[in-house]
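Changelog excerpt

This revision adds worked examples to the README so contributors can see how folded entries look when concatenated. The first example is reproduced verbatim below.
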Amino acid sequence: MNSIHEVREEARKLLEEKRVGMVIGYGKGKGKKNYPIFITDPQKVEELHFESDCFYNLAVYLRKPEVCSHGKLAIVVKGCDARSVRGLFSENQLKSEEVVMLELKCDAKGIGRDKCTTCRVKNPLTPEEKNPIDGEIAKILAMPMEERFRFFAEEFKRCIRCYACRQICPHCFCKTCIVEKSEPQWISSTPSPLGNWSWNFTRAFHLIGRCVECGECARACPVGIRLDILNRYLAKSVEEKYQFIAGMDEKAAPPLTTYKQNDNQDFIR
């Protein structure tokens, strides 16, 4: 779809014909602010809004019990959001017949948001050739190991363990997060150097081959930790080794969640 007007008409039709029970989209707030809206009344679809300030990834709401209780859902998606939804399909967290995606073209110019300058899918399912964040990764990889360690140590020491990165991520869907387990306790829950390293790297490892690089974790972090750099590096490694990009094919399982009996295992040394 090319405009919010088309989305509104489609949303109205879906609700009136009772093909969906709810439409998830963006609403216009004061000034340049916007917020998620959840529409069940066809008469309220005019509240749907879309401009360059609509940078939130709405896919995180699709698995919320209070949202799922409305039955089949429709959701307004940009390219990065569409990847998240397809990723949830591929991991059997959602069924494709339960979600209608109202896809909108996006110019990747979210107001004041760095995450939008690194977007590789300005239009849904259209990968760009280069990701600007790769230049930052190259600088870090060029550092001596000790300097690279100091870079991440400086980043992670700011972590206050608020878990905003986890809460905003559509792909952090464990019923009980490893950081909340106390018997045994795998990761310290206090904001300490060791606990912060363990938490941030464990979460990054859990997202290998699953992260769609929507940038919401870095945007939501109240202390500005560059989680996007770490996640992009791992996503790039998966792409190079397995020719896999998360969220581009809803029928393709993430590489680290599957196996082949004829795998030559040449990565094992």
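The second example, added in the same revision:
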Amino acid sequence: MISRIIQIVIYINLTAAFILSRDAARLWSKLGKRGCMNNIASVSSEHAVIGLTKQFAMEFGSKGNRVNSISPGVIQTELTDEYFQDDEMVQLIKDNHALHTWGQPSDIVSCMKYLASDEAHFITGSNFVIDGGWTAGKKL
């Protein structure tokens, strides 16, 4: 059962990023256009998605396409709402974030909009960590 769950996670997070990025680049090439792909990396497949992002940045960059990834931290969504009903969990989240709060989907969307804009024309092959300071470390 666990191996099946891992297969599903890898398929959703890595295989989907591969197929969508590859097909977008093919379409843009066929249409004589260029574009920007933003992959979302999370949990166990995060490093694979980041590696794939770097590979595609090198592969598609010569045609003017940009590829980046986003590694979100704790984001409150319908799927995570139950965690925010538990006072201990809320305190744990606050204590372990430099900003003492958690993210909203709009935080991820803002980064994606920027990366897809012409203002980010020189950004490719990068991973953007949007985690409110979770990876900055715990305060001493």
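Reviewer comment on example two: The chain has one domain: 2-132. The two ends are 40 Å apart (CA to CA).
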